[in-house]
Model the fold of this input.
Amino acid sequence: MIRVLLVDDQPLLRSAFRALLDLEDDIEVVAEAADGEEGLALAREHLPDVALIDIRMPVVDGIEATRRIAADPDLAGLHVVILTNYGFDEYVFDALRAGAAGFLVKDIVPEDFLHAVRVAARGDALLAPSITRKLIDRYVAQPPRTGVGRGLEELTGREREAVVLVAQGLSNDRIADRMVISPLTAKTHVNRAMTKLHARDRAQLVVIAYESGLVSPRER
Done:
């Protein structure tokens, strides 16, 4: 059972998301909150698998809530998916660096929304295609950030290859096909790379890959 926390200051949207999730046999909404501070308290109380958090809320916004979740060792298993009305904006980078596992635009179709919750629960990075394209395009105009990617020199050749493929948006199964290895071995390479690069999840691994210069936006 996938346990979900909804955090959004719009009651109508929370009700709509809950109604959709409650129809699924493998998903349970364990709590709802109207702001980030309340959401943090409920996250610590219920220990959900996935938190769907609005990016712009009163009291504590989605970015700060994500940052506090990422810093709490008791919430290490919680995957944050940011909900936004705006698609790509300046908050995307901040939220990914804070520890968000991905983004969803609120006009997503129901089937994709449900799939997204399940993907997030598995610990995979989750970015809406429109956001992914703009996120990568943004790096074309930016030089690599100094100090990012501490641990790159510790990666094996196969781990570096796996990181590049993750940054291109490939799943473990597709990485396995590309590298001609088993999905389990692909997952192992990715997990070891995340450990060495101090990435909380695959979304942060993507950010590190681009910001460190390991992957060029023109390689996508």
Observations:
- The chain has a mean pLDDT of 83.
